[in-house]
UniProtKB/TrEMBL annotation:
UniProt GO MF annotations: medium-chain fatty acid-CoA ligase activity
Domain AMP-dependent synthetase/ligase: 4-75
Record's keyword terms, sorted: Ligase
Keyword Ligase: yes
Protein name: AMP-dependent synthetase/ligase domain-containing protein
Highest rank taxon of the organism: Bacteria
Protein family membership: Belongs to the ATP-dependent AMP-binding enzyme family.
Pfam name, any one: AMP-binding
Any one Gene Ontology BP term: fatty acid metabolic process
Provenance organism: Thermogemmatispora tikiterensis
């Protein structure tokens, strides 16, 4: 397709625009097999969906993100907001992900 400068991103509407992104100067293997690293001024953690505890590097869990890009809440729906965003303002995406030792994320 002659598309030499493609970057891959991950995000959801509630954390728009995106939370992670590959960069053109990343190793090719990381550019084609991951959704990149976390954007500046955002935080990501991968947690066990059952316990909420952070999982070790290389283990799958739920991707949670926090920062300026996370929505304030669902319009007139406190219950849905409370289910998605915890008291510490972590957005629980419901998506499973794995973080590698270089802090690149795979879905």
């Amino acid at each position: 397709m002659h598309m030499k400068q493609v970057e891959i991103c991950y995000g959801i509407t509630e954390t728009s625009p995106v939370s992670t992104q590959t960069r053109l100067d990343n190793p090719l293997e990381k550019r084609v097999s991951t959704v990149g690293q976390v954007h500046l001024h955002l935080e990501i953690k991968i947690v066990d969906p059952a316990s909420g505890k952070v999982v070790p590097v290389g283990q799958p869990g739920e991707l949670c993100t926090r920062g300026y890009s996370v929505m304030l809440g669902y319009w007139n729906n406190r219950e849905a907001t409370g289910q998605a965003i915890d008291r510490a303002r972590w957005m629980h995406t419901g998506d499973l992900a794995v973080m590698d030792a270089d802090e690149f994320y795979r879905r």
